[in-house]
Amino acid sequence: MTKAEVRLSLHSIRLPESADFHLIDQLPESPAAFIRNADGLVGWGEAVRLTARGPQRMQDLAKAWRALVDETQVIDEVQVPGSGLVAFGSFAFADDSESESVLIVPRVLLGTRDGVRWVTRVAGGDDENFWDEPLAYRANPSIALADGLQSAEGFIQSVRDAIRSIENSRVEKVVLARDLVAQVDSNFDVRTALKRMATKYPTCWTYSVDGLFGASPELLVRVSHKQVSARVLAGTAGRGTDPGVDFAISTALAASSKNITEHRFAVKSLVDELQKFCSQVDADSEPFSLQLPNLWHLASDVHAVLRDDASVLDLAALLHPTAAVAGTPTVEAQKLISELEPFDRGRYAGPVGWIGADGDGEWAIALRGALLSENQITAFAGCGIVAESDADAELDETELKFKPIREALA
């Protein structure tokens, strides 16, 4: 684990109304970003990098973050969520993953929230007003993703094996993924892909942390002044080609016993975990149909009040992995995933987001994206398997979920 070699000093200042920019147009090379609609955060460079591996990775980084907060001098003239000391983070899905989990404090951070714009600089950071003009992103050649370690045929067989495990009462639900890969040259510009995603999916959380990037529809947890909120997505259907068909698909999804069962597992898992740290945990009594450009999802919102002196990172550690990305019961589902998936998920389906000095922050689940490592892109998509699942239909669902990253790279 890396610690700051010297005590940090940061200064957040509010920008004038004349500083009228869109965050998605201000991404640096290798950006750190967490953006939804017009609001979010973008970071330049690294002032501090904290890393961890293993079963206690999130708890270790939560502890390291508290120590860093105590050692940092902050002047915050803005006082909004995301101003002051902030770290971007991304965590490995599995306890035994070889991927590092990271928290990164940028040297310069640009933020917008509810019409307020600000910049935070670590002492000695760049003083240039880089937001005066949109940055130029390079055009990428069309990139075609191909089967990775799990082929389409292999995925179908894994789903069938999972259904047998469910029928034998080993698990009630398990989430299985497949991977796609592509080679890119050194001139590949991830910012171009991120801008496409943010433009096409503005209500998703467009994220980029240490090579992991995407546009997630699923908020794992948000904490603001002790108020906790989260959204569960489980149950999926493709959009229709005309309004009548689209409405019929949405109605069928809301009535589907298979999807409702899958969704209830995910909501119950989240509520049960939140009750360990929170009071007044409330979930929607019935799921609603969430409309995305390419998919319908069954969705439920959950709200709670943080009871103990905990941070958003403590809650993320408690909640991960949810039934929506692992299964039920969680421990046995994770074992089955390791048996049926021929790859390390890395940070796919792990928490991705940011944390502030006060412990508030926002963490999504790293879905609908990919990992850029050296000259290779690896994308993942998964779906929940229950007793009523059909292997061919689940393969079709992964193709729907690959659509955002395919579009971004096309």
Overview of this structure, please?
The chain has 410 residues and is an alpha+beta fold. The protein has one domain: Anthranilate synthase (4-Layer Sandwich), CATH 3.60.120. It is 27% helix and 34% strand. It contains eight helices and 23 strands. The strands form two sheets. Strands 1, 2, 3, 5, 8, 9, 10, 11, 12, 13, 19, 22 and 23 form a 13-stranded mixed beta sheet that branches. Strands 4, 6, 7, 14, 15, 16, 17, 18, 20 and 21 form a ten-stranded antiparallel beta sheet that branches. Helix 2 crosses helix 8. The protein starts with 8 loop residues before the first strand and ends with a helix. The N terminus is likely disordered.
**CATH topology (level 3) name:** Anthranilate synthase
How far apart are the termini? Answer: 38 Å
Gyration radius (Cα, Å) is: 21 Å
Helix count from the secondary structure assignment: 8
- State the shape: globular
User: Helical percent range?
Assistant: 25-40%
Residue stretches low in confidence (pLDDT < 50, at least 5 long) are: 1-6
CATH class: Alpha Beta
Summed over residues and divided by their number, the pLDDT gives a mean of: 91
What would CATH call the homologous superfamily?
Anthranilate synthase
Largest sheet, strands/sense/barrel: 13 strands, mixed
Can you count the beta strands?
Answer: 23
Q: Give the oligomeric state of the chains in this entry, treating copies of one chain as homo and distinct chains as hetero.
A: single chain
Structural category is: alpha+beta
Q: What is the domain total for the residues?
A: 1
CATH architecture: 4-Layer Sandwich
Strand content: 25-35%
